[in-house]
Amino acid sequence: MQSGSSDVLIEFRQGNAEAIEAAFETLFHQYQRAVYGWILRIVRNPAAAEDLTVETFWRIYRAHARFEPSRGFEGWARRIATRAALDWLRTVRPESELPEEFSAGLAAPAIADPAITAEIRRKTALAFGRLPPKLRIAATLAVIEELPQKDVAAALGISVAAVKLRVFRALRLLRTNLERQGITP
Amino acid sequence: MNAHDEERMKHLLRQALPPVEGEQEPSLDLWPAMLRRLDADSAAPALPGWAWFNWAWFDGALAAGLVGLAVFFPASIPVLLYYL
Hints:
By secondary structure, chain A is an all-alpha fold. Chain A has helices spanning about 5-15, 15-45, 45-60, 75-90, 100-105, 120-130, 135-145, 150-155, 160-180.
């Protein structure tokens, strides 16, 4: 994401109603791809990511009075997008997610480890989908997407130490779930 | 779980759920959907002033039960506070 021009940001924060709407439209067109891409990394579902992009910008529009132009639009939009994605993850049953469909269309081709069978991959994906959303979102961004922990912490509104702890708890819980299914990672 | 186990779990997770490839874009321009959402929001009727006090009957019954418990069994207050 790039940082929006300061005039637009100031108009969005404290302009009159027309100026706010114009600035919002500019910001929407400037950032919709970036926000969509960020949400897609979390929810891994293109249709849901589109809906959540609209939801995110709706929340942004409603919260324009709390926006601080000096801190930039990027981090603020990411935090709101992450919260919207987290709300969505809380409402979705893990079984209804389609990691296979996602892997076929959007995921980067990974070099398959022959020691890990397709069945183990499927069970791991399902077990991961059953983790608490707060842990899953941290592990998705920090482990799967390999984003800097500083960025993950900023998006989640927590400290880097808290990100490390959530990732650790997610991996430990995932290992316990897999071991219950007879899979020893 | 030691550092070695942690690395193995990370590897397994990346194998099961590969990262998103490159820059992904929405299948269509989302601005029309955004306008519909804004229109729907502005067309929604304003809530009356007492709307914040819109409790379901279950909420009221639960609150009454907790107050009753605290009044008739004061010893339960620390237990209730512990679970809050």
